[in-house]
Design a protein that fits this description.
Elements lengths: L6 E2 H8 L3 H8 L21 E2 L1 H15 L4 H25 L9 H35 L1
Antiparallel strand pairs: 1-2
């Protein structure tokens, strides 16, 4: 049986070199909303329990924040990541253990659609950034 790894609030804070209050605030939606997936505290004396994946998400948020990204941008990135993960998980359930030549046309299309959407989003973000950079240079 697989061993379940979980982390308490203080463990997460130590691992990520964040204050306990920062992790706690991000967990309760101030200013980010990152819910613990194993157990969310419910009242006095109960504790949040975080999965390894929760720690990765919090680490991403911490790094983006340290790099100067606005909190709204950080939350948008986290939301997009969750959306993509859920879509891939759904397709993964259908395709688990199958080789590419064993996929149905519908399964192939779902995977292709996800890949195309991601590429289109990246292309649009790159074009938007280039446009913004041009406008900033023109203002100088």
């Amino acid at each position: 049986m697989a061993e379940l790894t979980f982390f308490e609030l203080s463990d997460v804070a130590d691992l990520l070199q964040l204050s306990i209050s920062t992790v706690k605030n991000w967990t309760i939606g101030r200013p980010l909303s990152i819910k613990p997936s194993i157990r969310a505290s419910q009242g006095k004396g109960s504790r949040n329990l975080y999965s390894r994946e929760d720690v990765y998400v919090l680490a991403l948020a911490a790094q983006l924040s340290r790099d100067g990204f606005a909190i709204k941008t950080v939350q948008d990135i986290l939301d997009k990541q969750i959306e993509l993960k859920n879509r891939l998980k759904e397709v993964g359930k259908e395709t688990l253990g199958k080789k590419a030549d064993e996929l149905t046309p519908e399964q192939k299309k779902k995977l292709d659609d996800i890949a195309k959407e991601q590429k289109d989003k990246e292309d649009k973000e790159r074009a938007d950034k280039e446009q913004k950079d041009k406008e900033e240079k023109a203002d100088l």
